[in-house]
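Lab notebook, bench 4. Still working through the backlog of constructs that have no structural model yet. Next entry is a single chain of 558 residues. Request: give me the structure tokens for it.
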Amino acid sequence: MNTNQSTPVVAKSVLVPFILITSLFALWGLANDMTNPMVRGFQKVLELSNTQASLVQLAFYGGYFTMAIPAALFVNKYSYKKGVLLGLALYAVGALLFYPAAANESYPFFLAALYILTFGLAFLETTANPYILSMGDEATATRRLNFAQMFNPMGSILGLLIAQNFVLGALQSDDTAADGTPIYDTLSESAKAAIRTSDLQIIRNPYVMLGIVVLVFFVLISVMKMPQNKNQESKVNFTDAVKRLWSQPKFSFGVIAQAFYVGAQIMCWTYVYQYAETLSINAKSAVWYGLAGYLVFLVGRTVGTALMAKIDSGKLLMFFGIGGMVTLCGAIFLPGMLGIYALVATSFFMSIMFPTIYGIALEGQGEDAKFGAAFLVMAIVGGALLPYLQGYMLDFGGTGYEDTTIAGVTEMRFSFILSLICLGVVAFYGKLVYKKYHKHAKIEFMKTYRHCFSCDLKDDAELIAKYKEYHAPGNAWPEITKSIRDAGIVDMQIYLTGNRMFMIMEVDETFDPTKKAQMDAANPKVQEWEQLMWDFQQGLPWAKEGEKWIALEKIFQL
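Model written out:
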């Protein structure tokens, strides 16, 4: 049944906390996309190669990989709110460290500051994403996260505007003569040193201001009473949760798809400036193409979120992945300005990918979601490794961007083959999810039937508690839940009073109990589960020998 139409995406009771947590999406978007143009800024000021400059992204996104699991362990021990507060504290410290980094004029110091800053972002993303998912019905969780993530590109746009107007446009190291020759390259070492000091202070200032803003958010959230989801915030054994998560292909492949998606996004958004340079567009003007990409991304997120109410999320992910591959082909092979237009258009198709992969991978994970979220945040390391690989490709023929040709195009254009491959992985994941997990669950237009059964548990408090633990969210064996769905069972709920259980089973028109029994008899894992359950269950007093679940007779219907 389609519950998305009647269930509110955000309940009024959690609206204010939802707004506060959603604001964090804009806050880390600002940091992410104020940093992307800085790759070129550091490259100019400190005279770095493409590979050296890409260390900015390695430090920035490497912080996510380092801190995601510690963040999840912290949240598991304490709470989502405390995780958010620690994330904000680390974010502020990293941003404020730009002040001594500029004073020392040390590139490694800047990288260390970014690394610590992203410790905070890892905490925020590991915490805020599942927190948003938990603020309401699971049926609307992916839409709720897509809505919250709409504010991420708003922060990205603000970050880009700050980079353009207060950093890139003000850097003296990027000044050119009337003939287009870089002035900085012709200066003496003493003149370069003076400009370097001034430019590094310019890079420093927006980060210091950002650190102060983050501290304000820290105070606001610390005094606000935040909701708790008892299921999501219960204590979970880390090792057991990890085993359950990685035994599910939908989750494990989701982490891989997320790594490739983030890599594609960061490559497209980082190297659009160098791409523009090959078209004789200066740094300040190139920012407008980055800004256009973010605006297109925001439009795509809005359109995609609306479409998700009508189209399966896996299918939509597949379509958007294919669309992105088409535009990247244009970025590689279309001549002149058409290429950069195609590169900008890619942002439309990337727009829904992060929250959609995130939501799909965490579907039904229950209390394991906090650790699942950590692995999905760790996947952001794709944004550290793949841009570094693209920078390495750009250095093939020299430090320029058009030193050689590959497949008839410059190395700058050809290097986007990496992003094309990444979006191919995402499209394949979307297809897998739709075909294997979602297609058979979409029954909006199919008639369903409901059956009720009853069975007793052995009258032992310890056994009953253990039985309930086996059936807690995320604990049931994945092979069992798969066998249930494969048989045409749409929904199954079990209720308990004392030691008597009642099962409500909803099936579609294809359900055949005889076929289900045959499938179960041929499945060793199902047989193992059934044998295990007999340790807890017993037949009703009037049941025949060996009989457990007995069908109930319907005697009234409203």
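Notes after review: The beta strands are 405-406, 409-410, 448-457, 489-497, 500-508, 537-538, 550-551. The two ends are 20 Å apart (CA to CA). Flag for follow-up if needed.
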